Amino acid sequence: GFFTAMLWQRRGPWAMLAQRYKRVFVPLLLGFCTLLPFFDWVNKHAPGAAAAGAPTVPAGPPSPLTAAIRNKDAGGVAAAIAAGADATGIDTEFRIPLITLAALVGDVDVTRALIDAGADPNALGSDSRTPLHAAAFAGHLPIVQLLLEADADPAKRGPDGGSPLDSTKADAGTTAFIAGLLRIELAPPNTLASDRDAIRALLASRTGESTAMPVLPPADFLTRARNAYRDWLLSPKFVVAMPLDPSAQSLLTGMTLNYLWFLMFLCWLAVGFAAVAALATRLGLPAPPSWLVTSPAALLWTVPLTLLPQVFMGLFAPGFGPDTSAGLLPQPHLLAYYAVFFGYGALLFLAEHRSSNDVESVGRRWLVPLLISIFICFPVGLATIQFPAAGALAQVLYAWLMSFAAIGFFRWLVPAESRMWRYLSDSAYWLYLAHMPVVILLQQYSRGWPLSGTFKFLLVTTLATAILLVSYQLLVRHTPLGLLLNGPRPRHGRASRAAIRSVS
Predict the structure, then answer these.
(1) Which of 85, 319, 425, 429 qualifies as a cystine partner to 80, CB 3.0-4.6 A?
(2) What is the pLDDT of residue 503?
(3) Is residue 231 classed exposed, middle or buried when 0-12, 13-18 and 19+ CB atoms within 10 A define those classes?
(4) What is the rounded CA–CA span in Å between residue 106 and residue 117?
């Protein structure tokens, strides 16, 4: 936000947008076409990947057998098996046995064809669950009956202790989310609930388990709002076919951008800033007083503004801090969350433009917010992680206090311009873009070593940083790629502040 406001003030809105397009959007496109496929390849082929529970298999379009299963084409399944396809194989996309995929899809003839061809009704997926877990979860009563007739074990439990019967107790949000990820169609809610009731009764007659559903308290206003928003995010209307990708993904909850998702957020935020700045200029709105940005009074408006999107975090799984939104479109609550921080950075630049002395006071007593965030906000946020309303304030305070502490700590650590820190700052963009494949490779190589997790974490982090810094110097810094990411960098000597700012 600070840098965007600086570009806007010095060069104007169109030049700012052009610079953001060149430095952010173009690298995102290049990374999407190169880094993400390489990252996917590393995930599948890195040494030790198969041992980690993800079989190494070729990527690409689904096999004829997989396609026939998804299309509920029993004839196509039989033809593919007759042509040599392995009925005991796995789905290459989700790493689950094909019979589990058939159980999720819910076609009896397809599932029977796989069983007749030798598929194991008790085959375990990488999550240690069986086809019976899948059929029960999806509410496919005829598939459950077929699997039981084929000697599927109704008492088999997954790693969390859940039985196939327990799979029928998944709440509506979890069910819709998983079904969306797997791209399977389920029956309407009322029909699904009725089928699950029948499945519970059938499985309980075999295992003696209780069919009672957990009793939930009446939903309060926030819970209803979170559920409604979650259902909107999971709406099938956002699921579209992706170019060059055999699978359809949600524009909001898909993983299209993977770990490069934040670059797209920066693009959205830059466009939003330009729109807000243009509106403020047209209306003649003055900038807020500096003290409202540079003093602790900033918490009086930053915290409340951040609280609203924070209470919508963790819709699919409890977590500390903001969610991840890797779809082509940003999830609105997450965009709003980061917009507050982005906006604060922009206002901080405007405050510095008026008086640099005021800005230098930000984070000056950095040790105080650091201790409060670590020893109060963090443990309280973790303890209340299951209660969004109760834990939101602690998480938001942690984010803001830690941000101010980081600003102050860095000013204390680097009181004057430093060539070393400038170099690390320049390299940081490349390290972000390229770090994931390197980290995955190092993790897979070291996962079986008889060393503590803490030591391996430090080792992987150190080695990955060293490898990436070397690659930055040799392959990026003084190359066309480096020019694209950071602008021209001097080969020798200390770059002046003016020179650096003029090309950034």
Answers:
(1) 85
(2) 41
(3) middle
(4) 18
